UniProtKB/TrEMBL annotation:
Keyword NAD: no
Organism: Rhizobium glycinendophyticum
Keyword flag Secreted: no
Keywords associated with the record: Phosphoprotein, Transcription, Transcription regulation
The name this protein goes by in its record: Response regulator
Single Gene Ontology BP annotation: phosphorelay signal transduction system
Length: 132
């Protein structure tokens, strides 16, 4: 399967992609805005959506609302990436269909855990230290 990253900042997209590759072997596709991402969602089935809150044109929330109207995306995990701390955004995002949140700057361990939690068997499980 494939993860869709919707991020207009190429550096942020690269960081998210790099962190995700440490947790999963799934392919990743980056879309620079919600309109392009929506077109990709009509053409392909993604296993997870990682969406920036502030995007040019269509916001991350508008994208999530639109993609949730598609049957194949009703249950797909959708993670919103944002620096916003306003609790009203969380409420609105949850109502729109956001599954979880990542806060900017993205912290590597929290990101890896979130991806592993949502991907389940598709996640890479690190070797656990052996007890003596």
């Amino acid at each position: 399967m494939t993860i869709l990253i919707v991020e207009d900042n190429p550096t942020n997209a690269m960081i998210i992609k790099h962190l995700a590759k440490k947790v999963t072997h799934e392919d990743m596709v980056v879309a620079p805005d919600g309109t392009a991402a929506l077109a990709l969602c009509h053409a392909e089935a993604f296993s997870m959506l990682i969406v920036d809150h502030l995007l040019p044109g269509m916001s991350g929330l508008q994208f999530i609302k639109a993609v949730r109207l598609m049957d194949r995306y009703r249950e797909v995990p959708a993670v919103m990436v944002t620096a916003e701390t306003d609790p009203r955004l969380r409420e609105e995002a949850r109502a729109a269909g956001v599954t979880d949140f990542l806060h900017k700057p993205v912290e590597a361990m929290a990101f890896r855990k979130l991806i592993a939690d949502h991907l389940g068997a598709a996640a890479i499980v690190p070797d656990l230290p052996k007890s003596a």
